[in-house]
Amino acid sequence: MTDLPRPVFQHQGPASNCKIDGKELGWKTCTAYSMAMGIDAFTGGRQRPTGCKIRELTGDTTDGLTLRQVADVAQSRYGIRVAVRSGGTTIPPTKAARLARAGRGFVLQGNAGVLVGTASQSTGGPVNHAIWVQAVRGGTDDVPDRVLVYDPAADGRRGLAKGPQWWPWSRLLAFAADLRLDDAGTRRLGAGRFYAAFLPPRGSSTDTPADVTPVPQGTLAEMPLHLVRGGVPTNPLPLRLRAVPPEGRRVNVRRKTDSLSKESIVDLLAKGDLFIAYQQTTRGVQPDGAVSRAWFGNREATEWVHSSGVTRDGGQRGAGLDVDPDAGPPVDVVEDDDTVPGSEDLPDEIREDDLAPEEPGDVDTPSAETDLDAPVAGEPEEGDIPEA
């Protein structure tokens, strides 16, 4: 089991806790606060944005947020590639448990109605909500006994849950299964699948290979670009790409470009996942069905995707950059063995609900605009976290 450093707990409420452009968004920002705690954990506190800062960076100050919105911020602003598993790529809880044991925390969407009356209750009623899942313990590989949850709504008001808690795994399953998929709240996700956003294996984006040349970028970035031998910077720099695998498959992310072996795969991209490329090379292997040897890499040259599996952000979905239409799907994608059958008709994205109708009104005194660059107060919890 890989231990993930504990983050500073951040609470989203009250509404005035996050004020942007005159709009009080605290109760509409649980997904952003959950991702902020995930970034804190993943980087071991080296990057510790507030949830309100994540919210600002989405550019959305209207409704609740989606997993993909905060995942895009994690990569474009903090260099952390996040895999979103929703819609047709929903992930089974057993696989999510195994990833959590390997140190891959995740933001999970669910509905807080199932928490009412339990020690984990943080809202007044059934609202779609998001939490940060930090770790699991006990039980079996597939079915843990307990799960460490950071619920940004758990700030102790009215004597309800406060701070991080160890939930029973069964409670997490119920929370995830009760996610409402329509505005009427009548269609639920159901058991056996998660809408979640997984951070990558810790350290995967920090171990730069020896076969690279550091290239200073001046004001373009805080870190130099590590060009692989034969690589050139992308144009534009960086280049935003989206994964476009065929239905039921995902795009391989590899640690190098000279092999199509299973051992070189470090992660997988679901349809629509963002991959920000800083360099490209045409010296890699050419998969069957592709028409070039072009690969796109991250800043550190530690993660690569073949051009057949991606398209430029804003381009035509489902059409790779260099696929031979007569050769069938490109080879450098995988048949999914961890997506849930029958999920093809699920919505790709779900927004969190506004928790405000279930919460007491804020004080009437007007609040100032949030200092979006202020440091997060507090320290990670070092002692025992209570059982819920």
Specify the number of helices.
5
Parts with pLDDT < 50 across at least 5 consecutive residues: 216-221
Shape: globular
Largest sheet: 6 strands, antiparallel
**First-residue to last-residue Cα separation:** 22 Å
| Oligomeric composition of the shown chains | single chain
Q: What is the string of helix and strand elements?
A: EEHHHEHEEEEHEEEEEEEEEEEEE
Strand residue content: 15-25%
Helix content: 10-25%
Structural class assignment: alpha+beta
Lateral arrangement of strands in the main beta sheet = 3-8-4-5-6-7
Number of DSSP E strands: 20
Question: Measured on Cα atoms, how large is the radius of gyration?
Answer: 21 Å
What's the pLDDT, averaged over the residues? 88
Structure characterization notes:
By secondary structure, the chain is α+β, with helices and mostly antiparallel strands. Helices cover 13% and strands 21% of the residues. The chain has helices at 30-42, 51-58, 67-78, 93-101, 169-177, and strands at residues 19-20, 23-24, 83-85, 106-111, 128-137, 146-150, 165-168, 195-198, 212-215, 225-228, 232-233, 239-243, 249-254, 265-269, 274-277, 279-281, 295-297, 304-306, 310-312, 333-335. The chain has a six-stranded antiparallel sheet with strand order 3-8-4-5-6-7, sandwiched between helices. A hairpin with an 8-residue loop joins strand 5 and strand 6. Helix 1 (30-42) runs parallel beside helix 3 (67-78) and helix 2 (51-58) crosses helix 3. It is globular and about 60 Å long. The protein starts with 18 loop residues before the first strand and ends in a 53-residue tail after the last strand. Residues 216-221 have low confidence and may be disordered.
